[in-house]
């Protein structure tokens, strides 16, 4: 280690260099992943390096000392193009239509007056289409081209039993998270010939037949061919929408926003280590601890300032209306226009743990639903989600966050379940705004899987006949959007192709895994405790 430290001091390491860096993995074993140097600083005559581990989540970024750097494999940054970037590609100036026309005219004149020097006119780039999940996830059995509805109706129906299909482990979930996480690559599987179908409006209205076998734990559900749909984990849009979207436009990332700027946050009885950059005032970023009032979320620079603030702060719960209470759990609805200061402070705190969302100081178009836990001192924030007052794309969640001290305790699913309960009261189906973070995708996949399996397993024979249900009916019962229902069935790998029809098979392993998961899920939303009246936000007077 001392040799590496000597090398680090002898060779000047600059921002952009890449080299292996020592870190501990989850098993507390040493590993040397490749990392990029984002910044260098000197503290007490000792150099520190801020590193980002390549192909790791940004929340693992950290300051390291020189003795953790492997100088033998140091890679210096390549020279960048002098011209600004265009569409993220270096070496080309941002062009306008006038400049393109002028360039083509100049080239035409040159071709008539001077010999060719190998220059060619710029050709328009082919538009790359995103492959929907329907083509990304192959079915469990080989699937020929889809039969017509007439052929499907004539096909004989027999039970199709799968061998095994166990619930996915957390590791499997993490592999799936690569579909939508922050800037990670997606492996797109090209569509097979003959597989693509146009969206059929009546396709999801076809009845799904549920076959009960001698073994009551096994059932087979017949599905219509899934329509082409955009999976819930589609990629990052090129730019945020102007209607209040909180999706981050990643093209404006710079070295400042890529680095954590807050060392530690004290919120009530908890101390939190932020994962990502948050635009708190510059003078607060140098403090060892940033203090927050846990009731109004105002940020203060010292413990003495916080104590003085608490003597004047009258809040003991989030501002707004309490619309749900059961036991110690409460939900408060906060209007981003009426409670602007609180909403902005909440966004600043949330940005410390959400990398894929941007921060808008204009909180007017949003409603915030804050979940709290009650004790003798007041209502303590556990997590929250925000939603647009008017969403043209059926989004029922814009941002969603469970604070780190409360994670892995079932609160994330409770927030998701509450968002769908609101959608049920509104009489709509909803879906979360994309992209989802890695942890957000895990929670949503788990919630969708448990909710849909609960519906399918509760189906019972009607007058001795096999029970029937449609995708639309599942969507209406759960308020989960049709595309999310279909993509979840594909994700669980339940869809097979049998005798000219798509069938969905629930094996004993799936049923047992679902029952075990539901036994662990103690926190549930009770619709009877919800006191919520939806508003028509299209009337601007309501704002």
Automatic annotation (TrEMBL):
One of its GO terms (molecular function) is chromatin binding. Residues 75-125, 168-201, 223-247 are annotated as: Disordered. GO terms for biological process: cellular response to oxygen-containing compound; double-strand break repair via homologous recombination; positive regulation of DNA-templated transcription. Residues 257-534 form the MYST-type HAT domain. Its main location: nucleus. CDD domains: NAT_SF. Residues 84-95 have a biased composition (Polar residues). It is found in: Nucleus. Pfam families: MOZ_SAS, Tudor-knot, zf-MYST. PROSITE patterns: MYST_HAT. It is an enzyme of class 2 (transferase). It catalyses: (2E)-butenoyl-CoA + L-lysyl-[protein] = N(6)-(2E)-butenoyl-L-lysyl-[protein] + CoA + H(+); 2-hydroxyisobutanoyl-CoA + L-lysyl-[protein] = N(6)-(2-hydroxyisobutanoyl)-L-lysyl-[protein] + CoA + H(+); (S)-lactoyl-CoA + L-lysyl-[protein] = N(6)-[(S)-lactoyl]-L-lysyl-[protein] + CoA + H(+); L-lysyl-[histone] + acetyl-CoA = N(6)-acetyl-L-lysyl-[histone] + CoA + H(+). It comes from the Eukaryota. One of its GO terms (cellular component) is NuA4 histone acetyltransferase complex. The active site is at residue 433. InterPro entries: Acyl_CoA_acyltransferase (IPR016181), Chromo-like_dom_sf (IPR016197), Chromo/chromo_shadow_dom (IPR000953), HAT_MYST-type (IPR002717), MYST_HAT (IPR050603), Tudor-knot (IPR025995), WH-like_DNA-bd_sf (IPR036388), Zf-MYST (IPR040706). Belongs to the MYST (SAS/MOZ) family. This is Histone acetyltransferase KAT5.
